[in-house]
Design a protein that fits this description.
Rossmann fold, four-stranded parallel sheet, alpha/beta, 4 strands, 6 helices
Length: about 160
């Protein structure tokens, strides 16, 4: 099982969007039993709060439900629990390194690393542009899932 934790600053916009988009993609691919997908924050500002309403609405526009999700903070022990910890921007990645005490096993990444268009996922908290964030997250999660599937196929062939 591949365990993925998406991370952003507050865990109310980008990382829950990535979590639920990825869950939807995995479900549509019939691979639910092969993945554990969750999300967390680098800050404590939004702990316990639900997904931000505009992010919830954007997911709902595409038939994706995120009911029951509340923000939680990334913990040091998450580094051992997950195979990939994926931040939405460079500030997230710096904070992830700090919280996890480094990246000794190469598990910390930016979502945009899995594309030919590196950079940060657009932050709708500041721009109020949830459509751009949706497009960034959907395209990058699709590419990430493709990368994971091909990686797993190669590992199966080598065995």
């Amino acid at each position: 099982m591949t365990k993925i934790l998406f991370v952003c600053h507050g865990n109310i916009c980008r990382s829950p969007m990535a979590e639920f988009v990825m869950k939807d993609l995995v479900k549509k691919a019939g691979l639910e039993s092969e993945f554990l997908i969750e999300s967390a924050a680098t800050s404590t500002e939004e702990i316990g709060n639900p997904v931000y309403p505009p992010a919830r609405r954007k997911l709902a526009e595409h038939g994706i439900d995120c009911a029951g999700k509340t923000a939680r903070q990334l913990r040091n022990e998450d580094y051992e629990r997950y195979d990939l910890l994926i931040g939405m921007d460079r500030a997230n990645l710096r904070n992830m390194h700090r919280i996890c005490g480094g990246d000794f096993d190469g598990k910390l990444h930016l979502l945009m690393e899995f594309t030919d268009c590196p950079g940060d996922v657009a932050d709708p908290w500041y721009t109020d542009d949830f459509e751009t964030t949706w497009q960034d997250v959907l395209a990058r999660c699709s590419r990430l899932l493709g990368w994971l599937i091909s990686r797993d196929r190669i590992e199966e062939t080598v065995k």
